[in-house]
Design brief:
Blueprint lengths: L5 H21 L2 H25 L25 H5 L4
Length: 87
Amino acid sequence: MRFTDVETQLDAANRKAGQQELIRQARAPMPVKLAKEATRRAIERSFAMPLKAAGLDARVVVFFPDERPTEDWDRSRRPEDVVANKW
């Protein structure tokens, strides 16, 4: 090892193999599920707390793009209708 760069090459190969293994483990179903649930709870609390503090009894439900409900929740109005206060 003293006369070659074998140690450097081994370190690089081990580092790369370690990173690939960590990525493989992180993409497994259980860690992804746990991360999604933690994110969902954090976002729901972040939005519900100020609404509750304002006196609103709101229920906040978070969906990820791959979990989108089948019904259409977008009931947006055109800007002109909002300005004219029309439904």
